[in-house]
């Protein structure tokens, strides 16, 4: 069952995110890794900024979480994590499909370039990488992340965003923005 996470799920959210993020250790740049990967205050800040978490629950236990955040004219998929011992069972795909059905706007996803498993997952679900130039612009426009993270990340877009860009190629990046 997929359900919206509540305040009572906060500790479990932290646990799932930090356990699952261990996959990044040794993959992402060492200067971007820290333990815990997402501390409680950072998670609270993300929730205050509008990230709405949804969870996949089995037998009363959250097994995976994924955030949805409306920012200006797009929806972002944020902080997608599945418990390590529950991976490769379709939980992430079910969460993603559920959230995509809820999104009324084009969807963008940012992730670490070195997290090839995550990039492959999103590509398998119909997302495509945007160009380096678009990535830099989009990460600065829609996310609040450090410059170093921008350098080491990718952005993937859903077909709605891509078709909107094709229909109006100048709309995504103002000429004087970079």
Please provide a written account of the structure:
- This protein is α+β, with helices and mostly antiparallel strands and 178 residues long.
- The chain has one domain: Aminopeptidase, CATH 3.40.630.
- Helices cover 37% and strands 24% of the residues.
- The protein has helices at 10-20, 40-48, 91-102, 116-124, 132-142, 147-151, 159-167, and strands spanning 2-4, 52-58, 61-71, 74-82, 107-112, 128-129, 153-157.
- Strands 1-2-3-4-5-7-6 form a 7-stranded mixed β-sheet, sandwiched between helices.
- Strand 4, helix 3 (91-102) and strand 5 form a beta-alpha-beta unit.
- The longest helix is centred in the middle third of the chain and has 12 residues, at 91-102.
- The mean pLDDT is 92.
